[in-house]
Design brief:
By secondary structure, this protein is mainly beta. The protein has three helices and twelve strands.
C-alpha cells in the first residue's frame, strides 16, 4: 500500500486510461496538494429529524408498525454559494460536489480539512477501489455551536492509496455505487439482520 503524492495523482488525472482517476469538476488547481485533493460540499442534504418514535428500528418485526429509515430524514437543497446551517448534535448526509471515479487498485480516505475539524465537524470514510459517484458525506456537528457551511466550499480532503493488484468492486452487491445525491443508511437491508432474527427465534 502506498500513499500517492501530487505528481502521481496528477498523472492519474491526466491519463486517458478508462481505469484511471477521474474528478469533475476541478474548479481550482490548488485543490491538489502534496498528498491530498480538496473536495467541495455538494448541493443536496438529507437532514435527520426528530420523530415520535423513540429509536430507528433496523430489524423488522411482525405485528409492529415498521417505520422506514427514510422517514427519519428530510431532503433539502441549496444552490452554489448558498448557506446550510449544521446544528450541534445533528447528523446530515450530503455528498462531494465532485463526481469521482477511482481506479480498481486505488482507494481513498475521505476526511474533513483541519479548519473544519477545529469547528467540531469530523468525517472519516474509506472509499473502496473502483468506486464511482459523488463521495458520501456524513456530517456531524460535535461542537456546542451551530456552524454555517457554504455549498461549494472546500470542506473535505481525500488521500489516495495504491494497493497491489486490482479489485473487482462490483463482484458483491453494492448499496451505494454510482450515487450522485445523498443516500440514507441502508443498514436495515443487511443480510445478517435477518439471520440474527432467525437465530433469536430459536
Amino acid at each position: 500500500m502506498q500513499l500517492l503524492h501530487k505528481n502521481k495523482i496528477q498523472e492519474l488525472l491526466n491519463s486517458e486510461d478508462s481505469n484511471s482517476l477521474f474528478i469533475d469538476p476541478i474548479l481550482e488547481e490548488h485543490q491538489l496538494g502534496e498528498v491530498t485533493f480538496d473536495l467541495r460540499l455538494g448541493y443536496d442534504f438529507q437532514v435527520s429529524v426528530l420523530t415520535r418514535k423513540p429509536y430507528i428500528q433496523l430489524q423488522k418485526q411482525q405485528d409492529i408498525c415498521n417505520r422506514g429509515v427514510a422517514t427519519y430524514f428530510q431532503e433539502t437543497r441549496r444552490g452554489f454559494g448558498e448557506k446550510f446551517v449544521l446544528y450541534p448534535g445533528q447528523t446530515v448526509i450530503s455528498t462531494s460536489l465532485e463526481y469521482i471515479s477511482l481506479p480498481s487498485n486505488v482507494y481513498a480516505d475521505f476526511l474533513t480539512r483541519s479548519s473544519y475539524n477545529r469547528l467540531g465537524i469530523v468525517l472519516n470514510t474509506m472509499i473502496q477501489p473502483g468506486f464511482r459517484g459523488c463521495f458520501p458525506v456524513e456530517l456531524h456537528n460535535q461542537g456546542n455551536n451551530a456552524i454555517e457551511l457554504v455549498v461549494g466550499s472546500r470542506i473535505f480532503q481525500a488521500r489516495f492509496f495504491e494497493i497491489d493488484g486490482d479489485t473487482e468492486y462490483l463482484t458483491k452487491g453494492r448499496k451505494y455505487y454510482g450515487n450522485i445525491r445523498p443516500t440514507i443508511s441502508r443498514a436495515d437491508k443487511d443480510v445478517d439482520l435477518e439471520i440474527l432474527s432467525n437465530i433469536s427465534k430459536v
